[in-house]
Structure prediction request, 587 residues.
Amino acid sequence: MPVVDVDPDALRRLTGHDEKDDEELKQDLFGLGLEFEGETEDGEFQLEFAPDRLDRLSVEGVARSLRYQYGDDRGVYVPNTNDADWTIEVDSSVPDERPFVTGAVVRDVNLDEAALDSLIQLQEKLHATMGRKRVKGAIGIHDLTMLKGRLASDERGNSIRYVGVEADEDRFVPLDSDRELTPGEVLTEHQTGREYADIVADYGRYPAIYDDIGLFSFPPVINGRRTEVSTDSRDLFVEMTGTDQWTIDKMLNVVCYALDARGATIEEVTVDYPDDPVYADESVERVDPGVDVVRPDLSTSEKHVAHDRIEGLLGVNLDPDEVVDLLERSGLDAVTDESDDGALRYRVAVPPYRVDVLHPLDLVDDVGRAYGFNELDPQYPEVGTVGGRHARSTLEDAVRDQLVGLGFTDLLNFHMTNEAENYERMRVDPDEHDCVGAGEPVTITEPYSEDYTMIRSWALPSLAMVLENNTHRSYPQDIAEVGFAAEYDADEDSYVAERQTVAGALARHDASYEDAKAVLQSLARDFDVELETPPTDHPSFIDGRTASVVLDGEDVGVVGELHPAVLVEHDLELPVVAFEFELEALR
Prediction:
């Protein structure tokens, strides 16, 4: 979850509620679903956010939500925009891996030190979340007075150009530098360039943005020093490039709303795409060739939700007027309507900064939060059953107890991971279906972060990551987890084969295969199953020090000494022995 620093004094000022003390603000923020995690040395609140409400990644966004919660604002607010005076001309030389661009001009913004810090933080948090660490979308903010627009091709006004360049084709002075560098030199000699070099490493040409003076932005890596924004800046040019038009447009909306809250005026920008665009990813939303796109796109979207569904999920009876009121207090517009079968429903207008409203349930959540979840009365379900522990849970707890008794620390890791952690760093080929941990992954279609793009297919990589993050701790470190794993299976109704897995790792200077096998022998004895360990091969383990885990004649896992390459990959300097097998084999 992202954690954002928010100045409570700025919150009071932006909401117009100076009478609120810190404790009252914390309670109000908790009502929005924002967890208080502590304070910075400067007294700023550290708030943990749900990753869906990206519009709250700045103090301006939080203040907007509080004003709705207090009833000071109602319904959808859309900033007024001035007509476009600037054009972004997209050249056909733009790398086909990053073909999309969007932008806006922001005028008369009051950027004191606090406002500038908030803008920079919003930029960083959007990069980390929706932008997937700049891979899917990257933001560039420039001082407009330092740009010199050339006359647009159709004489509509000023323009800048989004093009593709060779690594050594041109030079510019990047931020935090005092000398000119080529794009290629930025990637090898500049600290920020080295950090984001992997994004553009496979590009045939590098993205670049020019004004009439020359190169001033190298997205998604770094901006030029010439257009650096400071507290003296009053007019800004915001540009964003990415692999998907929808993503960068929504990121732009969040930034524009934050600056609008500071009293700025938003001015449209025309994006002029070439007649023959090329798309590296054929699945992304496209822009029609040769069509001018006016941005920012501040149009609202419309969703529907049934009245019965709201009452059924929240467990309260509500009048239609009350539902409309609650939706308006959530920053939405709503009118009553009828579905095809005559049932009462609501047509709800969603503002352009809300990227999280994808389903009627999201609207029900807004109604419940505006009503107050603490105001809901608990109700017993209308069923006559008596609860009890599931047999699988009983087995899980029993295995955990035995592992703890054998000296292991019990872990609970995330079930979500990514392909690099699950396969590559463990030297596993997902296409090797006979290998423990391999198999086609269950992937997330639209992940918010590149760190969590799939459900793990085995638990051992999670244990390796824990050991990697705890190299500063004393040894031995014996850790284990009874957890969830899954892989794609076309024969399943859900196309997902789920299972519970038991994994353990022992990190110590004298760790050997026999130590891990001894643990398995103890578990087999305790659960009255027969253990066999015939030799086998596995890319994560050392040849000749690896065996299959066979319980009651069924091959259910692997045990052995981790391969030196796996240890080096995870910065581990001690031997590690590990095992993993299916929980059901102990039943």
Observations:
- Residues 278-284 have pLDDT under 50 and may be disordered.
- The chain has four domains: 3-70, 81-295, 301-374, 391-586.
- Residues 81-295 form a domain with the Phenylalanyl-tRNA Synthetase; Chain B, domain 3 fold (CATH 3.50.40.10).
